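Forgive a beginner's question, but would it be possible to get a protein, spelled out as residues, together with the matching structure tokens, please?
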Amino acid sequence: MRQIVLDTETTGLNPATGDRIVELACIELVDRKKTENLFHHYINPERGCDLGALKVHGLSPQFLDDKPKFAEVVDSFLEFVRGAELVIHNAPFDMGFLNSELKRLGMPPLNSICSGVCDTLPLARQKHPGKKNSLDALCVRYKVNNAHRDLHGALLDADLLTEVFLRMTTESTVS
């Protein structure tokens, strides 16, 4: 079974108001084992970042200015995820942004290309009701070292989520 652990960073919180993706990262799992295959790009959003988003990821407009636009990486991204199940923490957020970018390019939604989506947030809420289930909280709960995470980053967060997901979905883990 092929799964892709995916995360994005964005210019803000709402693609419906014009917010865009600034970083996209995917890590491949085959039969629950991390492979060496990954997809990672910083993306020029063709607009500025909200101050709140900038404080979360630290990706300045100057840094992003010479990066490829989403349209320039979309084909390689879709080829990378084609047929795989996506693993995403708070999937509606990332899927909303990705589908907005695809729609902007006249392309079909992501779920028509992938075999499905596993959202780890409701999974965590089901396994740990009444507890915090942010990625940071899950790292603590599943003993995944995130001490090096000062700012959010799509590749860093996808890597952390990969470890959390594998531990959270193993029968022998303790809650």
Observations:
- DSSP finds seven helices and five strands in the chain.
- The CA atoms of residues 23 and 94 lie 11 Å apart.
- Residues 2-120 form a domain with the Nucleotidyltransferase; domain 5 fold (CATH 3.30.420.10).
